[in-house]
Amino acid sequence: MKNLKLIIALLFAIGLVACSSGQKKNAQGDVAVMDISVDEEAFEKQEEYKEAAAESQFVLERVHFAYDSYSLTEEARNVLARNANVIKLKKDTAVVKVYIAGHCDNRGTISYNIALGQKRATEVKNYYLDLGLKMPEMELISYGEEMPICSKNTESCWFTNRRVETKLSLR
What's the domain count of the chain? Predict the structure, then answer.
């Protein structure tokens, strides 16, 4: 556990240096510039999220994102509206905390993908709030590219990995 925390702290320090340039290579190797900063607090809570997510008994529908984007599609908004309805139904009796986890495909630096995953999770949280979901315990985390669902280097696989997952910690 201490080694894992040390590795995470080291990755975070490297990420701060790398993220300051705002550079990312696309599939053709060209450098694209996008200013995304790392949310230090969310990064530090990664271990807490993993433990709570493992205990969660309820996982909602995933939403997916276009390459290098954190904008919600109409389809994603519809999924989040369904998720919000489920959370509202369970909120009074069962939900203790809502965890929102951002994920990326493997086509960026570690620090860039952590930051992009955080932006995706933030967009989802903001949309839940726009839908009237008021949860006192709504926590964001970014895994970047570290928890892929699919490991092939294909567009369909990359799309599967560019996602946000909403998990509920229940009583």
Answer: 1
